């Protein structure tokens, strides 16, 4: 079984986080807005939150990024991005199931937003029990998804 771990991001991880983001998200960003390397680096520098982000490790290798916000009524999965070399191996499913279990224990919803064109991620979230709530964003490029805790 694959050993999955999480480690806190440090300021020294900024470039690695950008590389992971680019590997995971560039195909989708290109389809929607086009990939402008300078603009993407500026966006990343603005959003970079080493105190809130975690790096997903897989058998000791950096495999992706995770950012979870614990809000009063929900657990919001702000970011889950896995490098393509680590996709399709059950890593994302295991991470999301852990969050679903936590949300259930706390009596909260698990919510997230997914790019509408990311059919693979949407299919995963649906398989794990989330449902589509509503499209939103400019030209409905995102879909809000949620899972309510069972009574």
UniProtKB/TrEMBL annotation:
Residues 4-150 form the N-acetyltransferase domain. The keyword Transferase applies. One of its GO terms (molecular function) is acyltransferase activity, transferring groups other than amino-acyl groups. Keywords: Acyltransferase, Transferase. The keyword Lyase does not apply. InterPro entries: Acyl_CoA_acyltransferase, Bact_Acetyltransf, GNAT_dom. This is GNAT family N-acetyltransferase. It comes from Streptomyces bathyalis.
């Amino acid at each position: 079984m694959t050993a999955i771990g999480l480690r806190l991001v440090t300021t020294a991880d900024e470039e690695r986080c950008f590389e992971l983001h680019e590997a995971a998200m560039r195909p989708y960003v290109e389809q929607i807005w086009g990939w402008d390397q300078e603009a993407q680096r500026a966006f990343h520098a603005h959003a970079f939150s080493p105190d809130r982000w975690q790096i997903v490790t897989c058998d000791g290798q950096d495999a992706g990024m995770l950012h979870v916000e614990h809000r009063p009524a929900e657990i919001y999965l702000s970011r889950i991005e896995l490098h393509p070399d680590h996709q399709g191996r059950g890593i994302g499913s295991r991470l999301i199931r852990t969050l679903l279990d936590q949300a259930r224990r706390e009596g909260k919803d698990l919510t997230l937003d997914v790019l509408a064109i990311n059919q693979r991620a949407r299919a995963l979230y649906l398989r794990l029990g989330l449902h589509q709530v509503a499209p939103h964003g400019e030209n409905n490029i995102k879909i809000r998804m949620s899972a309510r805790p069972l009574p």
